[in-house]
Design goal:
- By secondary structure, the chain is an alpha/beta fold.
- The chain has one domain: P-loop containing nucleotide triphosphate hydrolases (Rossmann fold, 3-Layer(aba) Sandwich), CATH 3.40.50.
- Helix content is 33%, strand content 27%.
- It is built from nine helices and twelve strands.
- It has helices at 40-47, 70-76, 92-98, 112-124, 140-152, 170-187, 198-204, 222-225, 228-235, and strands at residues 2-11, 14-24, 29-33, 55-60, 63-64, 77-80, 158-162, 190-194, 207-212, 215-220, 239-243, 250-254.
- A six-stranded mixed β-sheet has the order 6-7-8-3-9-10, with helices on both faces. The chain has a four-stranded antiparallel β-sheet with strand order 2-1-4-5, with helices on one face. It has a two-stranded antiparallel sheet with strand order 11-12.
- Helix 3 packs parallel to helix 5 (140-152) and helix 5 (140-152) runs parallel beside helix 6.
């Protein structure tokens, strides 16, 4: 569905991504992990064509995403960056409605079908009780749900999330990731996200892609990636690996690096 081929990108004389090869299959839930500065967010921005690569390209259903029309991409792919901004006077309903922009005609007015989709997106993210609140008055977890509803209103086939749990407490993190998991499992949306918490990434992902020094280090299932060897080589962390008895999901406890 989404494929990066020989993808390279950098700023000035600094190469951030080098010869990235990555394929995301339809229906997958993939998380990109790596240390700070490894190129995770840059890769996500390049995949969504916010950034244009120096070399290589990103294919969406076999076509270069950089040759597709803006409206076409907006109806197929939604991207939520870190800490997105919005005017203070926007209500949650205003925000979610803005997700219908790629479908509106020249007058910018929503029709009956657009209103139905907005209501569906609000209901799907369980924020009906918030729809008349100002976004600026919401808690972190509530705000993330509102932004995900905005993305859902685009009716995307692919959803890109750049650190959707940043600055959230553990309860809110799990709430957001449970929502992401349901969007993938129940609605069939292909999801690629960036997370820093490796245990959360293992719990909520089907596939993990590890970046190191701007290159793909390894791609695999959580059990193939969350290993003592990968943690030490990529993150410089010594750790003990455990498995949850209910689902065999790996998790680790790090040792002090003395």
């Amino acid at each position: 569905m989404l494929k990066c081929k020989n993808l390279s990108f950098g700023y000035a004389d600094s190469l951030v991504l080098e010869d990235i090869g990555l394929e995301i299959k339809k229906g997958d839930l993939m998380t990109i992990i790596g240390i700070n500065g490894s190129g995770k967010s840059t890769l996500l921005k390049t995949m969504s064509r916010i950034l244009k690569p120096f070399n290589g390209t990103v294919y969406f259903d076999g076509k270069s995403i950089f040759t597709l029309g803006t409206g076409t991409v907006a109806r197929k792919l939604a991207m939520l960056p870190q800490s997105p901004k919005i005017p203070d006077d926007f209500t949650v309903y205003n925000l979610v409605s803005f997700g219908r922009h790629p479908y509106l005609g020249w007058n910018g007015r929503m029709g009956v079908e657009d209103i139905k989709v907005v209501d569906w997106a609000i209901k799907s993210t369980n924020i009906e009780y918030l729809q008349h609140r100002l976004v600026s008055t919401l808690s972190g977890g509530e705000r993330q749900r509102a932004w995900i509803a905005f993305a859902l209103a685009q009716k995307p086939e692919v959803l890109l999330l750049d650190e959707p749990t940043t600055f959230l407490d553990i309860g809110c993190q799990m709430e957001i990731l449970e929502l992401v998991k349901s969007l993938n499992k129940d609605m069939g949306i292909t999801i690629i996200m960036v997370l820093h918490d490796l245990n959360m990434a293992a719990r909520y992902s089907n596939t993990l892609a590890v970046l190191k020094d701007g290159k793909i280090f390894k791609i695999g299932t959580p059990n193939e990636i969350i290993t003592e060897e990968v943690l030490e080589e990529v993150f410089d962390v010594k750790a003990k690996i455990f498995k949850e008895s209910s689902n065999n999901c790996p998790y680790f406890i790090p040792f002090p690096n003395l």
